[in-house]
Amino acid sequence: MPDSTPRLTLSVGEALACERQLNTISTSPRLDTQLLLIHAMGQTRSWLLTHDDQHLTAAELEQFQILLSRREAGEPVAYLLGTQGFWDMDLMVSSGTLIPRPETELLIELLLEALPAGEAIKLIDLGTGTGAIALAVARERPAWQIHATDKHAAALRVAQHNLHNWSPGNVQLVQAHWLAAFGPASFDVIVANPPYIREDDPHLPNLLFEPSTALVANNNGYGDLQQIINDARRCLKPRGLLLMEHGFDQQSALLATLQQAGFVDLQPFADLNHQPRAILARLAHPALLEETLS
Description:
Helicase, Ruva Protein, domain 3; 11 helices; two-stranded antiparallel ribbon
């Protein structure tokens, strides 16, 4: 006898009402639910908003429920979708890469403002992850020569995919830990968004799904920042620029460290949320640098 039990089904409108399941985990449960449903159904947001009565197929419903459960468990939407918007790109992300943040776009804005488009610049992006910073700069300055490094092969595979989709052809990927693979006076500009969170930071549980190697640094969060500053003195050309993203409570200490290391023209910056976010510094002229460090 055939099974007469009706199959569970949902309309688009009913599926969107599942946003209430995300109220405790997300600051934008409605948007998250829309994005997950769009992904499960292979549709666009405009289609979604005009097909309230359309019913999901069994496969679409199963996929949506899986995604919703994973999001309810705290997994970031970017990992569930496999993509994250940054600058003018839609970048592939994976669990082995940090999710690019809107705050990091400040670094690109600062670089574009500090260096005219006509200059011949050799720049390196340290710990590139998805390649977000390197690619954004490359697209705005296609004449520049850009290197992007990461010590993790898995991250470089993601970056390579994004290069294929978004690079104008002026980015070279290198597997390396910070500046260890490069010689003296190699670059005009060094830019880095390194790990800078303390191992005991109370916010770390909120970042459970992102790779700790891209977030946490020793020495109370200063370990990688300090190493980059030290190595930048060797790898920057005379009067070269160092631009670093840092934690909200690290700016004052880093300004002092940079000054002691022989950097001048120190410029601190805040992000759109008015939080201290980045420092731009210039390596002193060699004669002045020798005098500062003696």
